[in-house]
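COMPLEX REQUEST
Ligand: iron/sulfur cluster
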Amino acid sequence: MGGSHDKRPGDGPRIESSDERAVLQDPRPAREGDDYQDELQLLVSVMLSAQSTDAVVNTVTPALFAKYPTAAHYAKSTPEKLGAQIKRVGLWRGKARNIHQTMTRIARDHGGKIPRSREELRELPGVGWKTAGVVVNHAFGTPAFPVDTHVGRVARRLGLTRHEDPDKVERDLSAILPPERWGRGHQLLIWHGRRTCEARKPHCSRCAVRDLCPRRGVKESD
Ligand code: SF4
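STATUS: Structure written out below.
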């Protein structure tokens, strides 16, 4: 990789760009636990995953997807009935309402297919920019570097951005890697944030990039 994507937008302690790439190109599998077979199922899985683990989401999705195979099936249901199916998932009431509204719009306005652009997807109830980025990346291979809580935290600690605002973090991270690496970079930062650079107490002593990391903002680690 070369050219403009080798620049580093953060202005804190520097990590050489080759080392940044090493972090983001970790070959280990980063996305796991997803259980979907089409774009509609992917969208519902991502909507359910806010503040819930993949493991919990995967306990409700098989029955949910069997009962609601198309957007029209969701649309014909009610938020209450949907809610009864997903009660094990955090924030289930709001998610049931959003899924019902979103599927109603997909059935009515998009011929039952999810919109292919991130801009259109973000307009759907309960979707938003980050979820839309995850969906277009996985469903359509559209380059996106969506920033969730893990991505933002790890990027700040690594000195890849100074921003809190997810849109600004995404801008910084997108400048580091070429578009074809954004999706992978997103997943790797999530992977690292879930397993090593955890929110409350990062495991710096066993972190593969501890020698390179400025550990910005880290007060306690093991
Ligand atoms: S050294 Fe610590 S703060 Fe830096 S990435 Fe690794 S776990 Fe996170």
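REMARKS: The CA atoms of residues 45 and 174 lie 25 Å apart. Confidence is low (pLDDT under 50) at residues 1-16, 27-33.
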